[in-house]
# Entry
Amino acid sequence: MVTPVIAPFGFRLLPAEIAKGDGTVLAMLSRNISRIGILAIISAFVLGSASARKNDPNAVGGRGGAGGPAMATPPAPQAMPPEYAYGFWESSFGAVRIDRDTRVAMPEAVTGTWTYNRGGEYVTGYFAGTLRGTVLEFSWTEPLQPPLTGTGFIAFDSAGTSFSGSWATSNRDRSGTWTGWRGQQQAAPAPVAPPPAPNDPAAAPLPPPVEPAAPVAPVAPAQPASPYPPQPQAPTYYPAPAAPAPAQPQPPTYYPYPAPPAPAQPQPPSGAPGAPNT
# Structure
């Protein structure tokens, strides 16, 4: 009878049993070879899945990073003018632009975007954070379905020609590295200043309003010429004025003659009865 011995890949036969050469030994050898083949197939599948996951942009550590739940710690910042970080970059996540964040009063506040091709469609992510010397620590979001959010950092070289860093999602299920480069340090694009607040005395006066132009009266279109010759017109009739009426004789003006004076009355002699006393 064959005595099996436990081995890493199944059962192993002792040399004594192999020497007997009976049919049981051959059956045992066949089963062991089958187990070894199955384990080899499983190992190849696991290794292939790990390789595909590393190249998957959605997988942990994809898009240029050998990631994992843990994100690296930012290095100590070195002195660098902030303008060295501004401008356009090429990176392992596609094109990158970094600008000063004019929405925040702090001069070290920055904002930026990155754009990459995801399955034939361009996706743009956004980040904002604080630049201290050569180290930029930021929060980021990527508008997928559902959106991805997380944190990260990048550290620039002192010449402003390259950077490298690390990122991770908010729940730490994905992480990876981020590297960027450009040929030479570029001047930062001029930031767009926010509009001044209303009634701000420091704001420049606004130009006077432009008066609207007076409306133009529509011009009547010219009438086309008549194809018929001009017709004679009847003269305009003006009646002659009536002759003045002859003067009529007027009756003479009547003025009555004055009445004749009354005759004088005789007066009684002086001293006679009835005569007035003198």
The two ends are 214 Å apart (CA to CA). The chain has two helices and ten strands.
